[in-house]
Design brief:
The chain has 3 domains: 100 residues, Orthogonal Bundle (Fumarase C, Chain B, domain 1); 249 residues, Fumarase C, Chain A, domain 2, CATH 1.20.200.10; 99 residues, Ribonucleotide Reductase Protein R1, domain 1, CATH 1.10.40. It has 18 helices and 4 strands. A two-stranded antiparallel ribbon has the order 1-2. A two-stranded parallel ribbon has the order 3-4. The radius of gyration is 31 Å and the shape is elongated. The protein binds arginine. Arginine binds next to helix 6.
Amino acid sequence: MANLWSGRFEKGMDEIVEKFNASIGFDERLYACDIQGSIAHVTMLSEQGIVSSEEKDKIIDGLKSIKERIDKGELTFTVKSEDIHMAVEGTLISELGDVGKKLHTARSRNDQVAVDTRLYLKEQIKEILENLIYMERVLLEKAESYADKIMIGFTHMQHAQPVTVGFHFMAYFQMFKRDIQRLQDTYERMDYCPLGACALAGTTLPTNRHRTAELLGFKAPTQNAMDSVSDRDYIIEFLSDASISMMHISRFAEEFVWWNSQEFSYIAIDDSFCTGSSIMPQKKNPDMAELLRGKVGRVYGHLMQILTVMKGTPLAYNKDFQEDKEGMFDTIDTWKASLRIFAKMIEKTEFRMDVIEKHLSKGFLNATDLAEHFVKLEIPFREAHEIVGKMVKYCEHHNNDFCDLTESDLKEIDERLSLEKMPDLSIEGCVNARVSFGGTAPDEVRRQIRQEEDWLNAFA
Ligand code: ARG
């Protein structure tokens, strides 16, 4: 079959050109959206009297039958078909004859590919949102069950202040919440239909783009035909959203890796999420957490790739844009799979509170609480900081802790100190007292959980 555009050519494409030019190897994935777009388009054409109602019916039946056969794997394409748009239209024409030739009236592949990718991405965004929401449910449940379990909060990977495990989970909850909101924003902004923009400048035929947009479930048609066919911002935005979310996944996965190490042993990742070594019989490696940490690399790569592809492309359509799909598809697959697997892994992970507890006495986790206590005794914070710093130095020197200090030790450090001015410095007391809004006190963490539960339940 000659190419559908071959009228002005003396000869066909060179074989290597045909292969290099073709996108059917990857854009076949868009077939259902391509057919959905064509059905809406021909429906609009018939409503506008551009094709007859009988012609529309024949074309729609033909398209549906093509879809069914692709679904079942009965219809496959080669590079001869060039891309999914040519493959479907070419098949339609070879099966229907002249009627099939009317489908491409008042559209071009430029607006067609744009509508296909938007339709596809909109569906995928909905699925990814479901995965993100599932992740949020898991985090909320975990936060609830660990709302008052105390662990170490780190800065610079050094013991900083005690926090609850539930509080830590809720920190990730906030990150994935922003990922959800960001993705919703992207969806809102891309929910406009480019079909009918034609090659770049619209058409002389009496089309109704508002109707096509409505039939395809878009908010409205895009405003400017030239922008409609040359805009790939929605893919870039999607890849940015994915990059940020994968970065969140990677940070959390990194914590799983070190929490799972022999040195920490805060958690023991479930056997079903680990693998062994081919040489060291004792090994149980946190491969899933490492892979999750690693997968972010390819998604950043896809974002950089599309930004670079788009840079410097003049208006309107350029073939460079064909390079927009593989990275988008891979990002969809990677992000979805990462969310799914990580949520399941988190669900199955329990913290070893007995191990964590042994570390709580190390590193003066209650030093800031002591300084704040002195502030309540009317000592300016900078001075209180200095005094506690000296107490830490003294304790480190004598290899003991705040609670081991005697009256004379205290006087030696600072004459304003005395045993009776020393507060309850138990780790539980410190955590329970951090009741400031957004703080780590169990009651405050529960307040955060209640509030976010309401937000999450609105999705149900
Ligand atoms: N396969 C092409 C793409 O993915 C479809 C649009 C082709 N348009 C054109 N004028 N060559 O971008």
